TrEMBL record:
One Gene Ontology term, aspect cellular component: endoplasmic reticulum membrane
Membrane topology, from the record: Multi-pass membrane protein
Positions of the UniProt region annotated as Disordered: 1-35
Keywords: Endoplasmic reticulum, Glycosyltransferase, Magnesium, Membrane, Metal-binding, Transferase, Transmembrane, Transmembrane helix
Organism lineage string: Eukaryota, Viridiplantae, Streptophyta, Embryophyta, Tracheophyta
Catalysed reaction equations from the record: a di-trans,poly-cis-dolichyl phosphate + UDP-N-acetyl-alpha-D-glucosamine = an N-acetyl-alpha-D-glucosaminyl-diphospho-di-trans,poly-cis-dolichol + UMP
GO biological process, one term: dolichol-linked oligosaccharide biosynthetic process
Protein name, per record: UDP-N-acetylglucosamine--dolichyl-phosphate N-acetylglucosaminephosphotransferase
Transmembrane segments: 44-62, 74-92, 125-145, 152-171, 183-205, 226-245, 251-270, 282-303, 315-339, 397-419
Keyword set includes Lipid biosynthesis: no
Length: 424
């Protein structure tokens, strides 16, 4: 997206003449004519943090008897995540000035025709989240792993994949690669994890199918690794194409990340197998920082957005969730949490595979007079919702979609509860 934006860089950001270049090198802080971004929506984020942390802390401290050692690691990780939240909150305005100076910005399409639609919104702020996340995930090893820990290899391979994905996302933001290439980027980023993965490659056959297949465990071998790669491609791209409304990219990640955390705590609380508990604890160590840093970004990206997250963020978040689903061995549950993304993907298939023309942006039509969005014929969940529920403001449509996401996460918990003992 940025390459196109660079071409249309407005006059306010003046290109330096050769003579001026020496002077600009001495400039310490990025100075542009653009006003600073709007302050974070702190009240809204504070309410969200309360909403998430009260039930979560209840589950960890009261509802389940979690081993002290494990609980200690979870709390240290939560403390680091809180630091990550504040660092993200603090660094986004700073990074915004730098990206604007480099003409990395976008116009808010759903405000076209209003004064807000002419404001340059800094793009790719997911880079701040990605860097904060990686720093604290790396530092966390100091508190949790001994040098002979078996988890170290997979943990670092997971971080390498997330880091590679963040880099490729940023490359996409800067170069605006064609979407068919975009689709492939996550398969490269998943390579560190696929190569280092030494865990089992077996799947447990659902109980109702055992009489037909004659086995209760099936070793998939290399097909399991192929499945892991495909899951990474799906999670990253499905977050990226369920987008285009202020707060939707980060909002869906926040809802799914919270559901993953609750699922992990429930599994740890209900199990007595140390290896199983470790797999879910591993997931918590990556998802807590993801949730905290994403909330820092949401403070600026919620309606009306003062920053855009870029493909840097959507790829980073999708890859992190894919990695925890793979290494935590709960990819089926993850796919149910991703149900709205699956639905959006299915609706998108005719356009993605070229049966129907696919415009650069598949967004609703905005009416500047009423401030309402109307659904278009583009195959997205956003348009589908508008066609079903009628015209909406951008904020209420995004809220509807996030509630829908939350409802599916709750449905997943209900399904697991109903099928427990019968399915696996
Ligand atoms: C994906 C979608 C595209 C959608 C875009 C929005 C597919 C195949 N691609 O493309 O249809 O339009 O995401 O992110 O489904 N923007 C807004 N408001 C927002 C967020 C983004 O107007 O709340 C606009 C801005 O101009 C921003 C641009 O979208 O600069 C970012 O688009 P980008 O993430 O590069 O699009 P894709 O991921 O390629
Ligand atoms: Mg995108």
């Amino acid at each position: 997206m940025a390459a196109r934006k660079r071409a249309s860089a407005p006059q306010s950001v003046k290109e330096p003449s050769p003579k001026e270049i020496d002077k600009t090198h001495q400039i310490k802080s990025p100075v542009t004519d653009d006003p600073p971004i709007a302050p974070p929506k702190s009240g809204f984020i504070f309410k969200l943090i309360l909403f998430f942390s009260i039930p979560y802390l209840y589950l960890i401290f009261y509802h389940y008897k979690i081993d002290l050692e494990l609980r200690r690691s979870i709390i240290i990780n939560a403390g680091l995540s809180l630091v990550g939240f504040f660092v993200t909150l603090r660094m986004i305005p700073v990074a915004s000035r730098y990206v604007i100076r480099r003409n990395l910005f976008g116009y808010d399409i759903n405000k076209r025709g209003t004064p807000q639609g002419a404001v340059k919104v800094p793009e790719s702020l997911g880079i701040v989240v990605g860097i904060s996340f990686l720093v604290l995930a790396i530092v966390f090893q100091y508190f949790n792993f001994t040098s002979d820990s078996n988890w170290l290899v997979e943990y670092n391979a997971a971080l390498a994949s997330i880091c590679f994905m963040t880099l490729l996302g940023f490359v996409d933001d800067v170069l605006d690669v064609p979407w068919r290439v975009k689709l492939l980027l996550p398969s490269f980023a998943a390579l560190p994890l696929l190569m280092a993965y030494a865990g089992h490659t077996t799947i447990i056959i659902p109980k109702p199918l055992i009489p037909y297949l004659g086995m209760d465990v099936l070793d998939l071998g290399w097909i399991y690794k192929l499945y892991m790669g495909l899951l990474a491609v799906f999670c990253t791209n499905s977050i990226n194409i369920h987008a285009g409304l202020n707060g939707l990219e980060v909002g869906q990640t926040v809802v799914i990340a919270f559901a993953i955390l609750v699922h992990n705590v429930m599994q740890i609380g209900a199990s007595t197998d140390p290896e199983y508990k470790q797999a879910h604890a591993f997931s918590i160590y990556l998802v807590q920082p993801l949730l905290a840093t994403s909330l820092g970004l949401l403070a600026y990206n919620w309606y009306p957005s003062s920053v855009f997250v870029g493909d840097t963020y959507t790829y980073f978040a999708g890859m992190t969730m894919a990695v925890v689903g793979i290494l935590g061995h709960f990819s089926e549950t993850l796919l149910i949490f991703f149900f709205p993304q699956v639905l959006n993907f299915l609706l998108s298939l005719p356009q993605l595979f070229g049966f129907i023309a696919c415009p650069r942006h598949r967004l609703p039509r905005f009416d500047p007079q009423t401030g309402l969005l109307t659904g278009t014929n583009d195959g997205t969940l956003v348009n589908f919702f508008l066609r079903i529920f009628g015209r909406k403001t951008e904020k209420s449509l995004c809220t509807y979609l996030l509630v829908f996401q939350g409802v599916f996460c709750c449905f997943c918990f209900l399904l697991r509860y109903l099928l427990a003992g019968w399915y696996k």
